[in-house]
Amino acid sequence: MAPDQPPAHVDQRVTDNAPVVITGATSGLGRETARVLASQRFPLILAVRDVARGRHLADALSGNGIAIDVRQLNLADLSSVRSFTDGLLRDGVIPRTIICNAGVQTFDRLQRSVDAFELTMATNVMGHVILLEPLLKRMAPGSRVITLGSQTHRGGLRAFGFPGARWSSMGELLSPPDPEPNAKDNGLVRYSTSKLACIAMAYQIDQTCRSRDVRAASFDPGLMPDTGLARNYPRIVQKIYSTLAPLIARIPGANLVKTSAENLAWLATSPDAEPLMGRYVAGRKSRKSSPLSYVPDLRQDTWQTSLERAGAALENGPKERPD
Fold first, then answer.
1. Domain 20-316 in CATH: superfamily?
2. Per residue in 48-77, pLDDT tens?
3. Domain coordinates of the chain in residue numbers?
4. Rounded distance, CA 84 to CA 95, Å?
5. Closest C-alpha to 88, from 96, 14, 321
6. Which of 206, 235, 269, 311 fits a 20 to 30 Å CA distance from 145?
7. What's the pTM value of the predicted model, to 2 decimals?
8. What is the side-by-side strand order in the sheet with 144-148?
9. For the segment 123-146, what is each residue's pLDDT rounded down to a tens digit?
């Protein structure tokens, strides 16, 4: 179903008690963004893989009396995504903002999700599409969706030497051959390509939902060396990355997590950020994304193929978990 077909009862603007959902809220940018929003007294839903860590964070943030709900969500497991959205709808909880923060980055070896899709695209893109689809139709006017983009989708110097996105089709990206040819840098390419898809996804949502004032934007947090994004790298690479992080943070275009979190929280909730909806945003300013991200066919492919492939996977039942 297209994301712009709401039930007839959606006719009131977002209320103050409607929560902000943050995926991947227990580490890095997600955790710091939760801290910022909690300090601003926004009700939160922490959508996390590790519920115990989520509850620990909620306890630390709930001292000022705001409502913080912790719910289990593994974006790489479609049944978990469905359980999460079904639970929200069953409880009558409709978010004011959904921050699609969670993401993974593998190093080189092809990894697959529980449902046998390529792990990076399944987590960073498909999982969020499946989460958003049933909620978008019910979100009130004034609501927002924020996806996480990255300059890596461009590649080159502005992406700190990261290889740029290599788009084929959403179907091929979700189900690449195994073993892959020329796999040396494919883990990095999969990540940058997933960021292209995240940007395109925000454009698609904004285009189809803006008529009822549900808006979307994609946020580029910059290079943040003090996050855990390299957690799936080999140990030696993790050690090097951790050692160099303080130096990397001083490079133009790099940001401390705290700075990026403050900007993300602002984009997600502030009335002053309204002019930036429908755009790719770095800091608190609009930035052009790559020409490919504006291609309508790519935007539609990202959204529709995710829905179709996920629907087929859920209908056919769970797969064996990957090693």
1. NAD(P)-binding Rossmann-like Domain (3.40.50.720)
2. 999 999 999 999 998 778 999 999 999 999
3. 20-316
4. 13
5. 96
6. 311
7. 0.87
8. 68-72, 44-48, 20-23, 97-100, 144-148, 215-220, 280-282, 285-287
9. 999 999 999 999 999 999 999 999
